[in-house]
Amino acid sequence: RIHHSQNTGIFAYSGAYGVVEDNLIYSNKFPGISITNKANLVVKNNKIFANAQNGIHVYEGGHAIIEENE
Q1: How far is CA 27 from the centre of its chain?
Q2: Measured between alpha carbons, how far is 46 from 28 in angstroms, rounded to an integer?
Q3: H or E element that contains 52
Q4: Among residues 53, 68, 62, which one has the least CA distance to residue 12?
Q5: Cα–Cα distance measured from residue 50 to residue 26, given in angstroms and rounded to the nearest whole number
């Protein structure tokens, strides 16, 4: 569970890469997941809800494969 952060739940940047899978991501102050600046994530089978901003925010050169999230 990733919840009630005073920022983004998960923040990937500067070439970070990885898999975010099978999580509950909710009630964060900004997006549930932010991906930027050449970061590359696979985001799969998560429940993402009730974040103050977007569920998943990909911007400024971020890349993502997004599959089967709620």
Answers
A1: 13
A2: 15
A3: none
A4: 62
A5: 5
CB 10 within 8 A of CB 34: yes
Q: How far apart are CA 62 and CA 58, in angstroms?
A: 6
Structure tokens at 27: 């009630």
- If we measure between CA atoms, which residue out of 51, 5, 58, 4 comes closest to residue 32? 51
Q: 3-54 pLDDT, tens per residue?
A: 999 999 999 999 999 999 999 999 999 999 999 999 999 999 999 999 999 9
SS3 20: strand
The whole-angstrom separation of Cα 33 and Cα 7 is: 10
Eight-state DSSP code of residue 67: E
Task: Look at residue 28 in the predicted model and tell me its pLDDT.
Answer: 98
pLDDT at position 54:
96
